[in-house]
Specification:
single chain; about 600 residues; alpha+beta; FAD/NAD(P)-binding domain; Flavocytochrome C3, Chain A, domain 1; 4-stranded antiparallel beta sheet; about 30% helix; about 20% strand
Length: about 600
């Protein structure tokens, strides 16, 4: 892994190595600036590497004919709430297509899912097909850097080993005709890769967020841009009111990095800091429930920027996503957090608070599900955690967080210590309720109402399955409504759902150029913030799949352009792109290329 010469000045220092940080570094370099990237973790990629890798790009004109700037603006103005400003929304819309073109120029290809709707499909200006997903990358092309790339999240792996792309995930979840052949090909591609498996059990296929980060890392190497891991931001150095450098610590050794033009903070939010969660989030939550890597995003950049006068915004907001805890299989006494993005949407299940009452359309997006948990907690003081209830039909067809369907992991294969601690089972709904401290009669009534809705296809309480987004993820085997299924087949099951997140969305207040602002509205000279370091441009809203990464990427692109425009006369300006001899991996299954350093 390349390290920056920490006492040599650079034009731009980027803090963080997720999509926002790497894109800001690449664009600044390509605009003629000398750049260095620092990352406090031992691996690069941040939460971006563990994400679905999608970018929500309005008006991208790649299989999405009919979209427009006007539609996108209408939609975002209709759904954005809280701390959002028209200039930032317009900056995002206007720079999203150029950002995508720049990414494609870096060799990053995307697939469009034309039918995937926005998260608010009934809002004016909504459009299906704005979400773009990166194509698969052969990890061996990264050389030794493959082993410093943060690993894919368990949600995007089969049996914690075999990497999945989005289409494969959907196929294995829905299991239509031919799904076994898809699974067999995934397993065969892994097990026939003899040369690679001699080096590591980790699948060399990079998909979703890891594919996007992998391609950005290749582009970084091609340009000779240094990336230093194990390097933590201690404070920002001021000189006459402008940012002049970084005080860092690498392996406990203090270092200084002089900066000529600007610092770009792209170090994520504060979701891994329990103290900051307790101070800012609207309800009591546990940092362990977050789906982001442990001990990574602890708010270091926010604290450093506040110390030089930066203002904050949207600090009560997060990219909410339900999660659950299960014991780690490889190490004792460790719990692993698993995502519940899609599980609560499937038919033959419902979700209730601790009063045994439904509180949400279970087929909504994960962010809206989290918001519903918060609102119900404020009303009832009986949510967080809530419960997902399901029957044997659900158990056979679908997973529940880290618990595979019974067709793959039957009850006899569930570790005995999980029963009645993490996964609950009973012969009747009433007996199940007693095990999880719910009112048996009330839960029975709630289930009975759902069973009636499943017959008629109409959810009279929450309209589950009425919208295009709901139906997109529905199960066609359930009729007349693909989102509703009766809970009638024993045994009955329950798992606890916690209020998890994909990161916080509050952070440093920035202008339309991503420059950090003070409380009085003035900007801090030489300081920019992008990604979850900054307040989300959409305020307290998640407009569509990939909105988190798209906001990060677009404002990284904007920030780099703004810095380059302001520093056109830099003494370090250059135009040549250095080649560092990136390892060329083979793509066959017989023998992997031997990894070698990127630089």
């Amino acid at each position: 892994m390349m390290s920056a010469p920490m006492n040599d000045a650079v034009d731009v220092a980027v803090v963080g190595s997720g999509v926002a940080g790497l894109l800001a570094a690449l664009r600044a370099h390509d605009r003629g600036l000398r750049v260095a990237v620092i990352e406090k973790a031992a691996c690069f990629g941040g939460t971006s590497a563990t994400s679905g890798g999608a970018l929500w790009i309005p008006n991208h004109a790649a299989g999405a004919d009919g979209d427009s700037r006007e539609k996108a603006l209408s939609y975002l103005l209709a759904v954005s709430r809280g701390d959002h400003r028209l200039d930032r929304i317009e900056a995002f819309i206007d720079n999203a297509p150029p950002t995508l073109r720049y990414l494609r120029g870096l060799g990053i290809d995307f697939d469009v899912f034309p039918g995937m709707p926005d998260y608010f499909p009934d809002a004016p200006g909504s459009f299906a097909g704005r979400a773009l997903f990166p194509r698969e990358l052969d990890g061996s092309t990264l050389g030794e850097a493959f082993f410093q790339l943060r690993d894919t999240a368990p949600a995007f792996k089969l049996l914690d080993r075999y990497t999945l792309d989005l289409a494969q995930s959907f196929t294995l979840a829905a299991r239509p005709r031919g799904w076994r052949l898809v699974a067999a090909r995934i397993l065969a591609k892994y097990w026939l890769d003899f040369g690679w498996r001699r080096m590591t059990r980790r699948d060399r296929r990079l998909t979703l967020g890891s594919a996007l980060i992998g391609r950005l890392r290749l582009a970084l190497a091609e340009r000779g841009i240094p990336l230093s891991c194990h390097t933590r931001l201690e404070r920002l150095v001021l000189d006459g009111g402008r940012i002049a450098g970084l005080a860092l610590r690498r392996h406990a050794k203090p270092l200084n990095l002089p900066v000529k033009l600007a610092v770009v903070l792209a170090a994520g939010g504060f979701e891994q800091s329990q103290a900051l969660r307790d101070r800012y989030l609207p309800v009591a939550t546990d940092a362990r429930w977050s789906l982001t890597p442990r001990h990574a995003n602890e708010g270091d950049a926010l604290i450093a920027a506040q110390a030089v006068g930066a203002a904050l915004e949207s600090m009560s907001c997060a990219w909410w996503a339900p999660s659950m805890q299960l014991p780690g299989r490889e190490f004792p006494n460790i719990e692993v957090t698993h995502q519940m993005f899609f599980d609560h949407r499937h038919p033959h299940s419902l979700c209730v608070n601790r009063l045994a009452r439904r509180f949400v359309n279970e087929s909504c997006s994960y962010d809206r599900f989290g918001m519903a948990m918060i609102e119900d907690q404020k009303r009832s003081a009986a949510n967080i955690p809530c419960w997902m209830i399901f029957d044997a039909t659900y158990r056979a067809r679908h997973g529940a967080g880290g618990i595979m369907p019974s067709s793959i992991a039957p009850d006899r294969k569930i570790p005995r210590e999980w029963w009645d601690s993490y996964l609950y089972r009973a012969a009747t709904v009433e007996a199940l309720a007693a095990k999880i401290d719910l009112n048996p009669a009330e839960l029975a009534r709630t289930v009975a109402r759902m069973n009636e809705y499943a017959k008629t296809g109409h959810d009279a309480e929450f309209g589950r399955g009425a919208g295009a987004y709901d139906r997109y993820f529905g199960d066609p085997r359930s009729r007349p409504n693909p989102c509703l299924g009766a809970l009638i087949t024993p045994p009955f099951y329950a798992v606890r759902i916690d209020l998890g997140d994909l990161g916080t969305k509050g952070g440093l207040k920035t202008d339309a150029n991503a420059q950090v602002m003070r409380a009085d509205g003035a900007v801090i000279d030489g300081l920019y913030a992008v990604g979850n370091c900054a307040g989300a441009p959409f305020g307290d809203c998640y407009p569509g799949a990939g909105a988190t990464l798209s906001a990060a990427a677009v404002f990284a692109f904007i920030a780099a352009n703004a810095i380059a425009g302001a520093g056109a006369g830099s003494t370090f300006a250059h135009s040549a792109v250095a080649s560092t001899g990136v390892a060329a991996g083979t793509t066959g299954t017989g023998g992997a290329a031997q990894p070698r350093p990127l630089a």
